Amino acid sequence: MKKVISVLIVLLILFLAATVTLHFKGCGGDLLCEDSTAVELPDIDDSLRMRIDTFLSAVPPCGDFGMMVYDITAQKEVYSYNKDSLMRPASCMKILTCMAVLRYIGADKKQYNRLYTTGNLAGDTLRGDLILKTQFDTSFNRDTLNLLVDTLKGMGIKHISGNIVIDMAFTEAMDHEEHWIIGDLRTRYMGLVLQGFPRMRKELMGALYMKGIKLDGGDVLLGKLNPAISQLVAENINTYHTMIEKALKVSSNINAEALLYPLGYIYDKKGNYRENGKLFLNNFLQRELNVIPAQVCNIDDGCGLCPNDRVTPELLVRLLIYAHNHKSMYEEILNDMPLAGVDGTLYKRMHHPEIKGKLRGKTGTLTREGGVSSLAGYFIGKDDHLIAYSIINNGCGVEDGRAWQDEFCQKAFRPYMYMGKLEEQVIENQLE
User: Fold this and answer.
1) Are strands 372-380 and 359-366 parallel, antiparallel or unpaired?
2) How far is C-alpha 383 from the geometric centre of its chain's CA atoms?
3) How many CB atoms lie within 10 A of CB 11?
4) Taking Cα atoms as reference points, which of 37, 39, 45 lies closest to residue 76?
5) Which of 75, 83, 47 is nearest to 412 (CA)?
6) What are φ and ψ of residue 167, in 5° steps?
């Protein structure tokens, strides 16, 4: 009996050893490789690797350079150069911010801007308070506010005998991050919720005045809505999709930075939302990507304007792989990323027929610190393989960096398939 048990133990050990060997053989030593024991994965395209190597030898990149190219279909790295180097990402930082919001809030999550009343209506007088409650919606502006106030006029209200209460997430106006420079924060793009209580107060009083509605003796206060005694009279609804799309498609710094606030609210409702949002991003990386944040990034803002921001090229690729593994997130990211030569921040770039419409990429640009150009996204290679890539040039003139990246993508990547429609779109949002 003991001999039988011994033989069974030996056989079990051999089976386990064989399984582990097959797993490591399938992964090829790639840390990004997922479990490939269930199916036989296809090989990577060696010609893509050779084209990249040939191009880099013939046309050396300017400045400090890092990149990584990863075959998601084959689950293997294709090529990398300085992939572990901490580099300035510029607006490619927005990829991280948007993914955290998509994972823990969602693009379809509704944001409500609402007007409430308390008390009752006696003739043309509201005998009670008027309450305006806003959330984190950066698109809430003067026009939106006027539409809400129109409802009050439609109810026949001409006088308010109580107070006006404003309940808003952003009580203080968004300010420059300490390392930003004058001009980085363009207030005309901000919307009202980012401009704090004094501006909201002024705009609300102006909207009421224009509609012929007077405040009789009361005051305009910063306070909280009490749902138990309030009646909803008007609302405007938006979703986080709007902010995410603007952050990725036209690289809106304000929308990306504003996305830190709801993340910070989740992290700690009583803390500094902006600072807590950065802590949330670090936790997101540790929890979802199983990395030590200090080894792969430094996060000083949510949009990439700060010259102290750092990421590794590999981290950007890992984020893209992570998005692909979450269907709804991938669809949102893919649709919101600029399409080469067609829209967003790639509208004026990559018009050559070999690349136009065949590559999705989030761009990054900083003119300070010697110049920063970055690009990260997806394209479809040989045999319909989905490829994730990241390219970062630091200490390189912006125009030189962009021109080099455009030529590199055209001649080295040579995408095989279109990733969107080719109709050139006019982007209404002015690029930031």
Assistant:
1) antiparallel
2) 30
3) 10
4) 45
5) 47
6) -115, 105
